[in-house]
From TrEMBL:
Belongs to the bacterial solute-binding protein 2 family. It comes from Rhizobium lusitanum. Residues 40-295 form the Periplasmic binding protein domain. The lineage of its organism: Bacteria, Pseudomonadati, Pseudomonadota, Alphaproteobacteria, Hyphomicrobiales. Residues 1-23 form the signal peptide. This is Simple sugar transport system substrate-binding protein. The keyword Signal applies.
């Protein structure tokens, strides 16, 4: 199968942990996990969309397996509310806080307050620039690099491009660094339009912008849209304009809904580079738990992404994320930040 590692097929099992927490703590775990009920907060900036829902589901599954009392604060793309939620979590007496995305400039002082109270903090995709805070990411430079290598493989190195980007989000900023380098090294690649929107309606708002950009620049043949909601928006626009057959979309992220959109007949969405967001959510909780248990956690924690092409998915007959996890072990689990006492098998 193209672009998916040739790996042994294992039996598909629905999302659950193979080693459940004992009622009242985890057998063999260090304190306080031996007793259970450790309070940890998951504070997101964005909750809408497949990526963030799957990330939260993975965090909840890992928390359950560790008998953690996980308090989930919904993200509404509201920096003031996220600050307020961190203060609420401190008042709740949590032992750890996982911060999932956000704007660093609005978080620094409240995160300091948490650290001062001895609360362990983990950051996913938000640069809090503090040596006490482990940073989780999906190896965004590698992710963008894999996508752009596929772009060149399919289109050569001279084409007119559209690019979807919103500055200020750590993963998008890291992917943007790779795009900028790529353009400087491939002068035949001309960025004709750049647009994007991150909101609770990212896909539809991006679709409106993409439509305008594609009408104004009918010579665009490639769109680099490194977030699945961006890719959905561009695909919507291409379908509305009836230009799907002359456009190729390259993205990041994957979900069952994304796979369906990629493999459908005539889809312009030809490749994505992704981790399993549920695995990333689980890794984030493990990083918090290890710190609460007084154990070492690396400062930089990465979950490596995999290139998934339309051709490869179709050839392999993969239609869901569970089927993907059968073929790509990285979609089942990650060996990042684990310990013998932590149940970490996701599928
Ligand atoms: C608005 S930032 C969106 C990205 O965050 C996560 O890293 C996902 O990969 C998504 O692409």
């Amino acid at each position: 199968m193209k672009s998916l590692p040739r790996l042994a097929l294992s039996a598909a099992i629905p999302l659950f942990f193979t080693q459940a927490a004992m009622a009242g703590g985890v057998s063999g775990a260090p304190a306080p996990f031996d007793k259970g009920g450790v309070k940890i907060a998951l504070i997101s900036y964005i909750s809408a969309g497949d990526f963030f829902q799957a990330y939260q589901a993975g965090a909840e599954a890992q928390a359950k397996a560790l008998d953690i009392d996980l308090r989930v604060f919904p993200g509404r793309q509201d920096a003031a509310e996220q600050r307020e939620q961190i203060l609420q979590a401190i008042n709740l007496g949590v032992s750890g806080i996982v911060i999932d995305h956000g704007l660093p400039e609005s978080l620094g002082d409240v995160v300091e307050q948490a650290l001062d109270k001895g609360i362990k903090v983990v950051a996913f995709d938000v640069n809090l620039n503090n040596p006490k805070i482990p940073q989780v990411e999906q190896s965004d430079h590698e992710l963008a690099d894999l996508a752009l290598k596929q772009v060149v493989k399919d289109n050569g190195s001279s084409f007119k491009a559209g690019y979807v980007y919103v500055a200020g989000f750590a993963p998008l900023d890291r992917r943007n660094e790779v795009w900028e380098t790529f353009k400087s090294q491939n002068t035949g690649v001309v960025e004709k339009a750049s647009f994007g929107n991150v909101s609770d309606t990212t896909a539809t708002s991006t679709a409106d912008q993409a439509k305008a950009a594609l009408i104004a620049n009918p010579d665009i043949t490639v769109v680099f849209a490194p977030y699945d909601e961006f890719a959905r928006g561009v695909k919507l626009a291409a379908n509305d304009l009836g230009i799907g057959s002359k456009l190729k979309i390259y993205s990041a992220d994957v979900s069952t809904a994304d796979i369906q959109e990629i493999i459908e007949p005539g889809s312009p969405w030809v490749a994505t580079v992704a981790t399993n967001p549920a695995v990333v959510g689980a890794v984030s909780i493990r990083a918090a738990a290890l710190q609460v248990a007084g154990q070492d956690v690396p400062h930089q924690i990465t979950v490596k992404p995999t290139l998934l092409t339309q051709e490869g998915l179709r050839t392999a007959g993969v239609k869901t994320i569970e089927e993907l996890a059968q073929k790509v072990p990285a979609f089942s689990t990650s060996d990042a930040v684990t310990a013998t006492w932590i149940p970490d098998k996701l599928f």
